[in-house]
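Q: Entry one of two.
A:
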Amino acid sequence: MSLTYSIREGLAGFRRAKFAFIASVSATTVALILIGTFALLTFKAQQVTSWMKQRVGELEVFLDEEVDEPTARAISARADLVVGVDEVEYVSREEAREVFRREFGEGSEIFLDEPFLPASVKVRVDSDYANPDSLQSLVGEFSSWARVDEVVFNQPLLVKVQQNLRLFTLTGLSLGALVVLAALFLVGNTIRLTIYARRLLIRTMKLVGATDAFIQRPFIVEGIMQGVIAGGIASLLLWGIYGMLAGYLPQFAGSDTVLLVLLTVGLVLLGALLGWLGSYFAVRRFIKNVALH
């Protein structure tokens, strides 16, 4: 009976204080959009980071001039089985000549009279292995293979990229913390104002002998409902924002339905949590401070 009453009174609170309801839902929606947008951008940034580390941490295994085609392809297949390797690409002598011709343009033909470019195997590692220590270990392993002449990778560039990524991650975490704190402050203060507007109702209930828990429950139910509604609105807006970004940024292209569904569930639950916390502490404060005379 008490739960039914709390839900009924919580719904009635929407009708009694429409402006306060709209203000609270709007503030919570804005806060959830900020949090959801940051979470979405962080996820995409991690994808781009992994891609960048893989490309910068690419190894090139040059084979000796005497290696034949079947042996070269066998080395490429063997490299694909090494732990930490994500993808391999075999580049024959003829393909190396074409790459050289495209990159150097006119006049490159004078260098192509003799086949001086060796066959090679480009090795892309998993993002977890794209660090100097792991790559040096792979370089040592590939260098020990027969028919391998040299193994190279751009270590200075990888170190520079890792330093920049660490700075980016630290900056992102700091901004994320500020966004969450701003969201909590915004929601908490808005709910506190809406409950302050009904302080006379709380005082009246106290005067007729209502317990603190009995007074709190309808407000908490109302806050949770406001948070759920705000989470739904924020999710719909983020789906629209994602669709617009997908038209302008290639990083947002593709199907991320699962990500958006998880984000929707997370925002609805977070909205309910924010509504519950804001209502609980705001009502508790007013119940303790309300004057009965």
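Q: Entry two of two.
A:
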Amino acid sequence: MVSRQMTHMTHLLRAARSAAPTVEPTVESRRAGFAAMLTALPPVPGGITSAVDAGGVAAEWTDVEGVDPQAGTLLYFHGGGYVQGSPTTHRRLVTAICREAGFRALSVDYRLAPENPFPAALEDALTAYRWLTGPAGVEPQRVVVAGDSAGGGLAAALILALLAADEAGPAGAYLMSPWTDLAGTGASLLSRASVDPLIAGDGVPIVAGMYAAGHALSDPLVSPLYGDYAGAPPMLIQAGDLEVLLDDSVRLAERAAAAGVDAQLRVWPGAFHVFQIMVGLVPEADEAVEQAGTWMAALLSDPAAPTPGR
């Protein structure tokens, strides 16, 4: 059953989308609106943030009061279509995940398109991961990579890049509504177009073009749906049933499972794209973040778990 809070939030998002100007927004207005919307949400208590240079990439530590920083590290990539967002916009979500998992987090402020198109974001993701598991002294098996929307796709692309380079990968990946198919071939782009309160399917190619900047959309490092996940770590993928990008999650889970990966998929009825951002406000978001925290804590507590990587 869909909660009253989720139904109310969906109505608010639909109303805001209907009232939005029909003219294509500028990159600057996209970023300002996105930041204003997310930073207006009430903070999740207990998080302590500090800026850090992650091997030349701007990033932010998030520590949670009472949490052992050695227990595990979440390497987080924010969403925003590769053109907007920052660690600041996702602080409350990252803090909530860390509280549930008992982890600290490194949130990466990767370069944004269109000023910095592919492969800039992936280069920054790789640099941050290598810094975290090198100079920062965190063992790969104590790291879970995570992200929402484009950040979820970036986390998946990072895993593919590490596999291709035969480097030790993280212990797992937590992906929220990951954007994995920038080529836009999923049937849900049409089947969910009339119910998605947040994303217009016809706007997806515009943002994809900003990021890919002429690069092949079928390249697995651009669209990780098309990658080879043999040897990849376990994945927890969460999505909402209303979103036009639903098939990006469903098909990624199927592809990873076909490659022998422990890929768990959970789809919430009546939920929109990255509904977890409403943690503390919507019961479904609380449930999803709690599930993720439990999954990640269990993943790192299993001494028999194999080290990911080829």
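A: Comment on entry two: The chain has nine helices and eight strands. Residues 306-310 have pLDDT under 50 and may be disordered.
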